[in-house]
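Researcher: Batch entry, complex prediction.
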Amino acid sequence: MLFNSLEFFIFFIIVYVCYLSVNFRLQNYLLLVASYVFYGAWDWRFLGLLFVSTSLDYFLAIKVDEIEDRVKRKIFVVFSIIVNLVILGFFKYFNFFIDSFHKLFHVFGINVPLPALNIILPIGISFYTFQSMSYVIDVYRKEIKPTRKWLEYAVFVSFFPHLVAGPIMRARQLLSQVVEPRIVTLNKFYEGCFLFFWGLFEKIFVADNLAKIVNPVFVGGISGPGYNGVDVLVALYAFAFQIFCDFDGYSNMARGLGKCLGFEIIINFNLPYFATNPREFWQRWHISLSGWLKDYLYVSLGGNRGAVSMTFRNLSMTMVLGGLWHGASWTFVLWGAYHGLLLIGHRLIASIKRQVLFAGGSSQGWFIVKVIIFFHLVVLGWLLFRAQSLTQVGEMLRALIFNFHVNEQNGFLFLKFIAIISLLFVIQIGQYKTKDLLFLYHRHWLVKTAAYALMTCLMIGWGAMKAEEFIYFQF
Amino acid sequence: MSVLNRKMIFRVLLRVFVFFIFVELLLRLGGVIFLTVQGHQNRINLGSHGEYRILCLGESSTALGGQDAYPNQLEEFLNLGQSRVNFKVVNKGIPSITTTHIALHLEEYLEEYKPQIVVTMIGINDSVTISKSANKIITEWERFFEYFNIYKLVKSSWLRFVAPPEEIEKESRLNSQLKKIEDQVNRFPTSENLLELAGLYRATNKFENEKETLLKVVAMNPQDYEAWGYLGLHYKRLGDYEKAVPALAKMVELSPPVGDAKVGAYAQLADCYRLWQKPKESERVYLESIQYLPHHPGAYGCLANLYLEEKRYEEAESLYEKQFSINPHAVLFYGKLAHCYRRNGRYLAAERLLKQAIQFNPKEAVLYVELGSCLLDNKKYKEAEEVLKRAIELKPKDEEGLQLDLNKYLLASYEAQGKLVEAKKLKQELTAQQEYFNPQTVENYQKIKDILVRGKVLFVVVQYPLQDITPLKKILSSSPDVFFVDNQKIFEEAIRESSYDDYFTDRFAGDFGHCTAKGNRLLAGNIAKVIEEKIFHPSLPDKQGWVAKKEGSNNDR
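Model: Structure tokens for the complex:
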């Protein structure tokens, strides 16, 4: 069930009413049942997989905790990691690897008949496998104690607001809330509703309308004279905001739902386009994933404790794998590598800056320039991310440089883009200035009501009725 | 959870109220912006002289769609392939307006745009929804709410989410089922699968396919009586009795001696003969059936009906009585037997019969209606009124004019009892219900026509997709300058070929909605056809045929 659908609305009302009427113990049972129903509505065939993956890690974690012997503990945690990665790898990357092998051998003129299975991707698999892995690793690192109640662990993994598209939460963030009773206050309910409404607006109005600008440029390809650089640029700007609003929208909706139920779900995006350097960007973008990559991949590889070259190696490996996490395509890997390069580049420049004591200025004007420059670097990365193939990347880059013509049509397109993001943009500035993501929520009631009215009209007037699925669902 | 108190409730209500005010204001602001932009675009559109101007009036189904709205596509169609006449089509559709608004502003528009043709597709927003599935009269409250844009907005959004009318949902379900079964048949062509496929073809009106499939089955398995039966029914449905009879006869021959199949087969065969105007054969088959299964009631009643048609009343009577003695629940035959009795002047017997019938079948409205009619004949007006009212309580479906008869008799009972007030009220209700349009709409249409005729502007009246054109033709009596565009069949066929969602984006009007680009293209093409064929004759000497029926283009007025 998509969050912006009638079925989900009815589902949540029923669950919520029951949730508020029962005691804490029953609430957890209710959440488990509701989450499995929710997941089953997407595809009941993979409920079994979810169940098996959950139970396996539950038992493995207990085992890891009980055993004293270091070697044996390591074996169990490695086993858990391998199983999770194999499941993820099989469903997500099998065809990708087969395809790539094919192409590779083809280059040498060898035609290898390898099987290509028709594998369906279970929804949310990238999220819940990573979440499970973090739990077992945390137990191994003796940072937390495993839970001895299967019910609690299962709720932690399958909690429906965040099950299909994150945020990926750690045990100490979410499991700790599952084992304790939750208090739902009227304030939390209002905040939850606000977050959900805001997320809905981002998704239905901003993201889905931007998609109408982005898709015609990227899908279907261009024949004849090729792309127009301006079209590509506007589409990239639109995509930058589309993917942000899509994902942030979903995360906000998840946060809102969680809040209504008394849970604090972590923030996943913190005004990422206000970042002025790559390191800051990754502290603001998809926070739960980058945090996970840092804590479990980067640190495990050695982090920045070794030589500079080691650090660079670790950075690039982490980012490449982070890119691969997004999907089974070389464009994602390239995107990850690109961000790895940006991070490395930033470290180099930062160290040089330190040596040269370059002040750089801290004025607002300079800040805005830095934001704009870095934004364009990110936008270039989005070209890699969104493109359908490497060839398309090449063609579009060529268009950006050599075929950059402004005309009435793309001027109009740009204006449309501005119109769609204008309200969001204004609110984001407010959020940044007050350092408060609930900026709109904390304004005077008249202002809020006017804003809600405007957003409602926009959603009803231009909200996509045929829901375009969240981009991140295919992960 | 904190406690709700009065102050909090007041706060919430206040905010909700202010919210609605804001939304209403925004909608009106949006409306102003829309009109300004439209006016601007229209001014750009019209330029030089030497153009043939067509003005399109309507509401959201005309206005919306940007480049794909039907007026734009109409312009493309008309200009396609010819360069003699430069057509310019102006889109003056305004979302959510009514015919009153259009009639009021028509002269303004004519002044501003000076068109040669005015095309209208209007009426859906007037108080009575013009739709097959929704014919109700709106209450005073709704008329008040219609004033607020926000109410209209909520209503139309609701219709986007609400389940579609049964017929349309059923149709799309059937189409997907059909595809599945076709696949199955390709893999496993057993006679069961083929029969199922034939059934689905029948349900989706693909009769040729049905016939082919059935012929395949009987070729594969000549003993399959079911297939013969369906084949016979297929021919019977198409009126091809010559082919139907042998197929049904085969079914009679091959069907097993136990069970309903044989009786059904006899019944269908006899009915076929009857429709083929061969009553003797029909009678023979019924008698055979009775001989074969003397305890099965069906044949008696049907044969009795046949005798009734041939005016053999006594034979009919005895058969009906036999029918009821076996099965008193065969509701439809009571009326006929009562008719027999009344023909013979046995009015009381008829009355008694129907009362007995009602005892056995207390929920059958048709019996009450028959009894009502009978009581009227027997001059028992008060009793008739009571009985008919009980029929109304049963909320009968409107099959074969049952409602009509019911109301007719009830009216008669009122008048006979001298209850003139009730009679008048009933008459008003009936005329209102029978009217397709509400009187305001009719008046507005006529006003529009008068203005256009006076201004010597041609009037092209477009009926909405899937809707019947006859009511429109009725209220706008023929006039040489009024042309009608019928969109019922063309859209029905198009939807059958692909799907509803291909042509419409929603169901705001019940059984149709706003068009997709494809829907608008179909609509525009249809209108263009009417304009080309009826207004511009292809029969004049100019091979291109683009000579206007009326004298030239009146640009200066």
